[in-house]
Amino acid sequence: MSNHKKNILVTGAGGQLGQEFSIIAEQFHQYTYLFTRKEDLSIDDHAAVSGYFDQHKIDICINC
Questions:
Q1: CB 49 within 8 A of CB 61
Q2: What is the pLDDT, as a whole number, of residue 2?
Q3: DSSP secondary-structure letter at 59?
Q4: How many C-beta neighbours within 10 Å does residue 21 have?
Q5: Residue 61: closest CA among 21, 27, 30
Q6: Phi-psi label, residue 57: left if phi above 0, alpha if psi -120 to 50, beta otherwise
Q7: Can you give the pLDDT at residue 56?
Q8: β-pair partners for 32
Q9: Residues 6+ apart with CB under 8 A from 43
């Protein structure tokens, strides 16, 4: 069994749903959450998203 802590990317973190995820995330310490806003990472930019996934080894993405 892997001890790898799953990296979860939450895009749209500045919106209402993204902000709620940041509150809920505090209860789930077994995961590492990375929160981005449109200004930080545009999901329309495939190269930027791909690079972000590679750099941060994203396991799960939640698009808010």
A1: no
A2: 61
A3: S
A4: 18
A5: 21
A6: left
A7: 97
A8: 7
A9: 11, 49, 63
Q: Tokens 């979860």 appear where?
A: 8
Q: What is the pLDDT of residue 1?
A: 54
Token pair recorded at residue 1: 């069994």
Best CA proximity match to 34, nearest among 58, 51, 16, 2: 58
For 53, phi and psi rounded to 5 degrees?
Answer: -60, -45
pLDDT at 33 (0 to 100): 97
Cα dihedral 34, 35, 41, 44 in deg (nearest 10): 100
Question: Environment class of residue 9 by beta-carbon count within 10 Å: exposed (0-12), middle (13-18) or buried (19+)?
Answer: buried
pLDDT digits (tens, 9 = 90+) for 2-44: 677 999 999 999 999 999 999 999 999 999 999 999 999 999 9
